[in-house]
Amino acid sequence: MKFLCFPRMQLWHSDADWNADLKQQWQPCIDQKIKTRKGAMTLVSVFLFFIFSTLGLSMLYFSQIYLKLSAYKKNSTLLAYASENGIKLGFDHLLNLLSQTVSPSLLSSHESIELREDTINKGSEIVEKLLGLRLPFQNSQAWEHLWWESITNFYFEKIEEKEDYFHATYKTAISSVGKIKNFKEAKKSSLEARLGIFAGNLPLPYIPLLVDKKLDPDQKNDFVEKNKIDFLPSEKNLLSPQISFAEGNLIPKDANSQVQKALKIKFFHPQNLSHLRLRAILGLEETNEPVPDGVYLIKDDMGLGGIYVQGDVEEMVTAIEENFQVVSFLTEQGCWILKYSPQKSKTIFSTPEEVLYYDLIPLGIIIVNGKINSLGGGVMDPSGQAVLVTEEEIPSILKGANLTIISSDKITLSSHLIHQGVKWIDKVPYVKDSNSQLIIFATGKDFLENTKREGKIIIDKNSPQEIKIQASLTAADKGFSIEGKGKTVHILGSLHASDYLSNENKLTFTFDERLLEESDLVQNAPKTARPVLCLSFFKPVEWKEF
After folding, report:
1. Are 487 and 480 a contacting pair, CB within 8 Å?
2. In which domain, by residue range, is 169 found?
C-alpha cells in the first residue's frame, strides 16, 4: 500500500519574510516597467506638436491658396464684366448708328449698280454706305482699373437679286476684350448678329411707314407730336418700325407695270394705251370711241389676265365663300362678281348679262380707272350677292390669295379688311397662319388720258370706330386721311403717302414682317420711283464667351 507523497515546501516563519521574498522576486519586472514608461509624455507632446504644427501649416497653406483663388475669382469676375461691357459698348454704338440712319436714303442709278456689283463680289461697301463709316470700327472705354475694347465688322452671307433691286444679308461680328490693370490675363467675348439691307427700286411694302414730303427737322418733330401713331414692337427685328421722311417724288405717280401685267400687253409710254388698243384688249369693237363703263375680265389665248374697270365703283366688297375668293363690283351699270379658287384652279365671273366659267384663275390685279367710293370686307348673302359688313370683324381675304387693287382716283375704306388665318388678340395681330397679301394703290393719274386725279386713300367717317386693315396702302397724290372723330385705325402692313392727316384720330401700326421672308407677296406692288438704300432688319443671334 502506497501513501500519497507531497513535495517539500519551504515554510516562512512570518509575514515579513513572505513580503520580503515577493518583493525580491517581482523587483526586476517593476524596474523594467518603470524604465519603459520613462519619456512617454515627451513623445506624446512631440507627436501632438507635430500634428498641430502640420494642421497649422496646412491651414496657412490652404488660406494662401484660398486667398489666391478668391483673388483669381474676383479678377475673373471683373474680366467678365469688362468683356461684357465691351460687347455692350460696341452693340450700343452700332444700334445707335442704325437708329440714326436715314432709311430710305436716295441713291443714283450709278451708285445702285456699283453697290450691286460689290455685294455680288462679297464686298461690304453697302454696309459702309448705310452706316457712313469705314469698316471695321473700334470702340474702347476705361473705368478705374478696368479697360475694355470692341471691334465691329461685317461679313457677306447672301444676296437675293431681283430685276430692279436686291436684298443683301451680312453677318455682324462684335468681338471684345476686357483687361485689368497690372493683370496679364484677358477675357474675350463675341456677339453675332444679322443685318439685312435693300438697295434699288424697292417695292414700297418693304418700307413700313413713309411720308413722301420734304420737311425740315422742326416740321418732322411737329408731325410726330401732332399725329398719334403707335408702333407695335417687332418680334423678329430689334429695330422697331419708324416714320420715314423722303424728299418727295419717291412714290410713283403711275402703275404702268401693273397695268401692263393686268392687260397682258407691253407699252413703252402711257400714251401708247389708246382707246382703240384698249377696246381690242377688252374684246370690244375696235373704234376710237371711249371704252364703255363696266368691269372687264382680261383673257387671251394664253389664259386669264387681271380685271379692268372703266368708271367709278360705288362699292367693292371682298368676301370668302368656301375656298373661293370673292370680289364684288357695284357700279351704276350693274353688279359684277368675280369668284376664283387657287386651290381648285377655277374662276366664275358673273356679269349683268351672263355667267362665265374658267378652269383657270386670273391674275390678282384689279385696275380701276376711276374712284372706289367704298371698299371693305363682307359676306355672301343667300341670294348670292356680296354684302358689306361693318359691325363684325369677318375675314374677307382668302388664305393664299394675292390681291392688288389700283385706282387712278380716290379710294375710300369703309370696313375691315382682315385676312383668313390672322388672329387679333388684344388688338395685336398674329400672322403665323396667314400667307395672303393685299395691296391698295391710289395713283392720282388717269390710265388713258394721263390727266391728274385725286390719288388719295380715306378711312370713311362711317367706318367702325376701331377698324382693322391688313394691307400695303399707297396714296401718291393727296395722301392718306382718317375721317370722323374718336377713331382708332389698326394697320397691319405698310403705309406710304404724300401727306398724312389724322384729324386727331389714332393710328396703331404693325409692320408685316412676312414680307422679309416671302418676296412673292410684293410681286405686284408699286416700287420706289428712284433707287434707294434701305435698312431691312437687324437681329442678334448668339453671344459667346471665351
Report:
1. no
2. 73-201
